[in-house]
Amino acid sequence: MKTTTQKPSDGLEALVLSVYYAAVASTPAEDIQRRFSMNKDELLARYKTVFERQLATASATNCADISTLQALVHLLVGLVEREVAI
Fold first, then answer.
1. Could you tell me where the DSSP H helices lie in the chain?
2. Taking the CB of residue 66, how many other CB atoms lie within 10 A of it?
3. Residue pair 65/58 in contact by the 8 Å Cβ criterion
4. Are 63 and 71 in contact (CB under 8 A)?
5. Mean pLDDT in each 10-residue stretch from start to end of the chain (86 residues)?
6. In the chain, domain spans
7. What is the pLDDT of residue 25?
8. Are 75 and 21 in contact (CB under 8 A)?
9. CA distances from 11 to 2, 15, 21, 65 (A)
10. What pTM was estimated for this model as a whole?
């Protein structure tokens, strides 16, 4: 039986990245340092940059894919929560 794999949509990839960002944002800095040997702010900046590129690829402002909107909302909620926690 031949198995074929399909590339996920750009919107779905953006959604997954936004979940990664939210996971890092909600993890204590000490845990991030221990698990990734990296500063939490640095890791968040990396995920945010990759996410923003993927969101642009998904054409967030001109797209019918609900995953793209979900990804954008995830990021915005994560950013707001991070600002409130600081």
1. 10-25, 29-36, 40-57, 66-85
2. 11
3. yes
4. no
5. 77 85 90 95 91 79 73 76 63
6. 10-85
7. 86
8. yes
9. 27, 6, 15, 6
10. 0.72
